[in-house]
Amino acid sequence: MAMAIGNFFRKYVIKNLPFKLVSLAIAVMLWWAVGRDQPIDIPMTVPLEFQNAPANLEINSDYPFQARVTLRGPERLLQELRLSEVHAILDLQGAAPGERTIELSPKDIHVPRNVKVIQVVPAQFHISIDRSLSRSVPVQPRVIGTLLSGYGITDVVTDPPKITIVGPERRVQAIQTAMTDPVDATGVVGTATFTTHAYVTDPLVRVQTPGPIHVTVSTEKTSARAGQP
Q: Do residues 143 and 216 share a domain?
């Protein structure tokens, strides 16, 4: 029995003892450094993250989703805290189209160890949820600039002529066209092609597959002395 105990101590206690003592000393110093910090409170504004949202639904509210949280913890830890380490999460499990009020409490704020959430403002969020819809809309080119004297625009063609937009159903239905960024046709004689992009004005509606839009502008000599696109 004594021999077994001796072997145990030699194998698990005495072996590499200097390294173990150094590790213990470092652990004690870290504990002391953190433990001596006085707890402080700091405010922080964090964006909301939505989890478990059904794939066929979209948030139909365009105000910024963010919460003001007050955190308490060791001074050194909070001074080094990064915004990416704090997550405010709203659970949309079982959500359906319509309006819904969701509670946001301290337990919904994910923070690092040894940090406590003291307060969350606001404690409720009222959101509107709509079905997701995608549909194709024509691309409306925007041509600007001054043509040479006596020239006028005879044709403007976009490629592709349509794009697919995605978003909350009611907002997508309200959009009739997508608009291109302005293309400057100043001085164009004959035909010129410009590369640009298309967008929609509703921030909750997005282009399904963003990509370049080619706008071809054709001009000819006319009876006018000058032209505006």
A: yes
